[in-house]
UniProtKB/TrEMBL annotation:
<dbReference type="InterPro" id="IPR014710">
    <property type="entry name" value="RmlC-like_jellyroll"/>
</dbReference>
<dbReference type="InterPro" id="IPR008579">
    <property type="entry name" value="UGlyAH_Cupin_dom"/>
</dbReference>
<dbReference type="InterPro" id="IPR011051">
    <property type="entry name" value="RmlC_Cupin_sf"/>
</dbReference>
<dbReference type="Pfam" id="PF05899">
    <property type="entry name" value="Cupin_3"/>
</dbReference>
<protein>
    <submittedName>
        <fullName>Cupin domain-containing protein</fullName>
    </submittedName>
</protein>
<feature type="compositionally biased region" description="Basic and acidic residues">
    <location>
        <begin position="16"/>
        <end position="29"/>
    </location>
</feature>
<feature type="domain" description="(S)-ureidoglycine aminohydrolase cupin">
    <location>
        <begin position="42"/>
        <end position="112"/>
    </location>
</feature>
<feature type="region of interest" description="Disordered">
    <location>
        <begin position="10"/>
        <end position="29"/>
    </location>
</feature>
Amino acid sequence: MPVKLLSFADTQTPPEYDRPRPDRLEKGNPLRTTLNHYNSNGVNAGIWACETGAWRIAFAAGKDEFFHVLEGRIQITDAQGEAKQFGPGDAGVIPADFTGVFEVLEPVRKHYVIIDREAIK
């Protein structure tokens, strides 16, 4: 079977909604919306949106996320207290084993690509 190129604009992915786990909440209880347009062999890609709020994150070993902010503003603070803000047009990587706080300062939309090397076979 031929492999086809995927365009997010042509994809009709139903949204998935969730909120941070209560034991990880730092501020608010933001609704998160995920459109996971691509899922294959440990790689996920799509669009993620979230209301304002903050929660603790802990990335698993072997799991990295590249993201590109489309709108809004976020701040990611590492376990040592170093914070970095990202706004429209900014991109970054959350590496495997990262722990810290993810804060949505302004309602945000971002593209993401998550690579889970543990799931790649």
